[in-house]
Amino acid sequence: xxxxxxxxxxxxxxxxxxxxxxxxxxxxxxxxxxxxxxxxxxxxxxxxxxxxxxxxxxxxxxxxxxxxxxxxxxxxxxxxxxxxxxxxxxxxxxxxxxxxxxxxxxxxxxxxxxxxxxxxxxxxxxxxxxxxxxxxxxxxxxxxxxxxxxxxxxxxxxxxxxxxxxxxxxxxxxxxxxxxxxxxxxxxxxxxxxxxxxxxxxxxxxxxxxxxxxxxxxxxxxxxxxxxxxxxxxxxxxxxxxxxxxxxxxxxxxxxxxxxxxxxxxxxxxxxxxxxxxxxxxxxxxxxxxxxxxxxxxxxxxxxxxxxxxxxxxxxxxxxxxxx
Length: 324
Known about the structure:
By secondary structure, this protein is mostly beta strands. It has a single domain, classed as Jelly Rolls, CATH 2.60.120. Helices cover 2% and strands 36% of the residues. The chain is globular, with a radius of gyration of 19 Å.
């Protein structure tokens, strides 16, 4: 079944969402709403779950209505650059920007290449702060989840993964995303300071671009503007030629989903490592949505990460590409 978007100037029709959220995303009404990607991280729901050297002992699954990552014993799960010791869940299919957004595919342009000028890509992770999220732990021995991190963004490959993406690691897989990690060993429900969590972004090339200064909704006496979500988005512009040193700005950080006029916690103005390439036939150009669970630093971690919603939108932007 298809749905028409009310408009005085367009009769554009959007396909109804696929079961399980589709491949790279899409579905729904891209003008007004996110698509909720499935929380159950199974192949049938379009996800591949992979373990680094420290990830096999952790559990990741849907418990009731919440996606729960749980690491019970102190384990090194470092995520940084080419090191990937944690656990990831990756969308099986790479993003096909024009097809997923239902806009015309430019002639002579490969379907997997991203052109952020044509579409606004946004990924949002809403944490279960009522249940202790984003990050917590059972007791002080693990610092109530201290140094645990969650990252949400894109992982890029230089070949088509054909529905079975490999783990982000080594030197041939590039990644970047919004990040939050627990930077204090206190119990959140008994701690009200703004140095409990740090958020911003982390990339293959940038190890630590986070800031403090914001409370989260699971903390003691949290104000209404306390944060509860990560957000990752592409900027609607691409820099450089279509080959060689092409790059694009992106943003990543945290915010309060129910406070739309309050600021985003991020480092600097944007992810500007000047190294990630989005459109380069010789580089990483097959991009998949990805969520990482692990350790921010190279220290043993234990605890849990609780996610209430995974929201995604690929929204056409008026520009040089026609919207029909």
